[in-house]
Amino acid sequence: MTPAITLQAVTPAQHGLFRALYGLYLHDLSEFTDFYQLGADGAWSPDYLPTWLAEDDPQVNPFLFWLDAQPVGLALVGARPFPHMRQDVDYRLSEFFILRHYRRCGVGRRAACALFDRLPGRWEMLQLPANTAATAFWKRVLTDYTGGQFDTLIIDGDPAQRFVSPGVAG
After folding, report:
1. Where is each N-acetyltransferase domain found (predicted)?
2. Digit-coded pLDDT (tens) for 113-145
3. pLDDT, tens digit, for every residue of 13-39?
4. b/e string for 125-147 if b means 16 or more Cβ within 10 A?
């Protein structure tokens, strides 16, 4: 039996875990951009996590992905009227990360679907132009998730996709 993926909104007690996973995510991104830099103190800069981990802000939604009891990844979702998204969408997938050990075995696909099921509405996501693997991943996931009913476009020079999630009743 395939272990279940659980999606959990980040609690204050999980901020340390989230910060650790986010550092790994930024390390992975450093292959594609020099925007984030590791400082002499071991901290990544710029650091947007204080904004994302602010309590009681409905525009920012940090999530952790778990495979059974093991943390395997994270997502940061902006909700309208989040300032870094078009106003004709409800959600923007700002960041998505799965630990390397769990890639290429369906964990990322299942995590993404759990996220989209949880938040029905109009979505957009962008990828760094140099991260062609991410763009290919999202096109495969969205082809399956939406039955091919998504738009591929360029937003501010970045490859992007838009689609509608019907969510899951329950």
Report:
1. 5-170
2. 999 999 999 999 999 999 999 999 999 999 999
3. 999 999 999 999 999 988 998 888 888
4. bbbbeebeebbebbbebbeebbe
Question: What type of residue sits at position 110?
Answer: R
Span between the terminal Cα atoms of the chain, in Å: 23
pTM of the model: 0.92
Sorted by where each starts, the structural domains of the chain and their CATH numbers stand as 5-165 (3.40.630.30)
The candidate with the shortest Cα–Cα distance to 75, out of 155, 3, 7, 146, is 7
Q: Determine the Cα–Cα distance for residues 152 and 127; give it in Å rounded to an integer.
A: 11
Distance between alpha carbon 58 and the CA centroid of its chain, in Å? 16
Question: HEC profile for 73-133?
Answer: EEEEEEECCCCCCCCCCCEEEEEEEECHHHCCCCHHHHHHHHHHHHCCEEEEEECCCCCHH
